[in-house]
């Protein structure tokens, strides 16, 4: 099969690799029909991780089931499925508590696994023609009959929309809140959209890219452009001097300075720096890391 393969910093190639196949009775084999490129893929592409050469990339995937293992019960051949980024077993201690991103079964020695990502297990990604899905009954999100027609919408459920929505949950957004979102990239836009679905009374999005601000306005948010004045003052004015009730930081640790210059290279930017927080706490207590390794 053809797949996108990592060969080194800023070197990815479409190559012929062995076909993905059923390896365990609980596996599902999917023919990938849509896959997204995530901003997280850039961490590997630009050399900020220690991902191994030869890794097939891609963790935002959707497709059609073409084969199932003998222990698979719910998922059937022909189903259209979306495949969330994280791989989980569904039955370990962390999965039972709802912390499926920190599954203790799929990546021995660590908490959490994922498709095609550095340090997240031996699993190949879905920027390929075929994808093996472990624990298929748990990891395949079966889609409704209109899935083929709307697959460009449903694939958003693989990562980017849940990531933006999760930002609103971490912020505790509730109906009636005024919310400011910093960053109008894909995560920020999904956070703004999610805040509106939750019932926020006012959603403001701060960014200095005109095209992104136009998209924010298109989905019903209020664009805040720092080039037109202090974003703090703009938010204060939009909220009658009160300030926003809740805020979501959706820029990420690579945010540029106002003049567009990257911050000086620090120790935590070097390869091997990008370690998921499961390196800190396999038991997944109430850990909410901040700083350069905080949630997106």
Give short descriptive properties of this protein.
Rossmann fold; disordered C terminus; Quinone Oxidoreductase, Chain A, domain 1; four-stranded parallel beta sheet; about 300 residues; single chain; alpha/beta; 13 strands; 2 domains; five-stranded antiparallel beta sheet
Q: What's this entry about, in short?
A:
The protein has helices at 41-45, 93-96, 136-139, 151-154, 160-171, 186-198, 210-218, 231-238; strands spanning 2-8, 11-16, 28-36, 60-68, 80-83, 86-87, 113-114, 130-133, 141-142, 178-182, 202-206, 222-224, 246-249. The chain is α/β, with parallel strands linked by helices.
Query: Alpha-carbon distance between the termini?
Result: 32 Å
The residue ranges in which pLDDT falls below 50 over 5 or more consecutive positions are 263-296
Strand/helix succession: EEEHEEEHEEHEHHEHEHEHE
CATH architecture designation of the largest domain: Alpha-Beta Complex
- At CATH level 3, the topology of the largest domain is Quinone Oxidoreductase, Chain A, domain 1
How big a fraction of the residues is strand?
A: 15-25%
Radius of gyration: 20 Å
Q: Briefly note the structural class of the backbone.
A: alpha/beta
CATH class of the largest domain: Alpha Beta
Average of per-residue pLDDT values? 88
Question: Biggest sheet, in brief?
Answer: 5 strands, antiparallel
Q: Indicate how many domains the architecture comprises.
A: 2
Find the count of extended strands (DSSP E, 2+ residues): 13
Number of helices: 8
């Amino acid at each position: 099969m053809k797949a996108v393969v990592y060969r080194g910093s800023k070197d990815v190639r479409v190559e012929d690799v062995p076909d993905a196949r059923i390896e365990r009775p609980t596996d599902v084999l999917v023919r990938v029909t849509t896959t997204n490129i995530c901003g997280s893929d850039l961490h590997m592409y630009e050399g900020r991780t220690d991902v191994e050469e030869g890794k097939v990339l891609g963790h935002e995937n959707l497709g059609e089931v073409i084969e199932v293992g003998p222990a698979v019960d719910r998922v059937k051949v022909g189903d259209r499925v979306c495949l969330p980024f994280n791989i989980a077993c569904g039955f370990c201690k962390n999965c039972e508590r709802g912390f499926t991103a920190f599954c203790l079964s799929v990546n021995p020695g660590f908490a959490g696994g994922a498709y095609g990502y550095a340090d997240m297990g031996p699993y190949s990604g879905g920027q390929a023609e075929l994808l093996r899905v472990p624990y298929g009954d748990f990891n395949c999100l079966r889609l409704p009959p209109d899935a083929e027609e709307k697959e460009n919408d449903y694939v958003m459920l693989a990562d980017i929309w849940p990531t933006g929505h999760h930002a609103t949950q971490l912020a505790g957004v509730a109906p009636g809140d005024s919310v400011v979102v910093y960053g109008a990239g894909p995560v920020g836009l999904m956070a703004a959209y999610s805040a509106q679905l939750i019932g926020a009374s006012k959603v403001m999005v701060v960014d200095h890219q005109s095209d992104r601000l136009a998209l924010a306005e298109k989905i019903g948010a209020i664009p805040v452009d720092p080039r037109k004045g202090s974003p703090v003052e703009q938010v204060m004015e939009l909220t009658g001097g009160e300030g926003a009730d809740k805020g979501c930081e959706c820029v990420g640790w690579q945010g540029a300075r106002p003049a567009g210059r990257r911050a000086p290279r620090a120790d935590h930017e070097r390869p091997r720096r990008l370690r998921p927080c499961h390196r800190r706490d396999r038991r997944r207590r109430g850990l909410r890391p901040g700083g350069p390794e905080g949630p997106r």
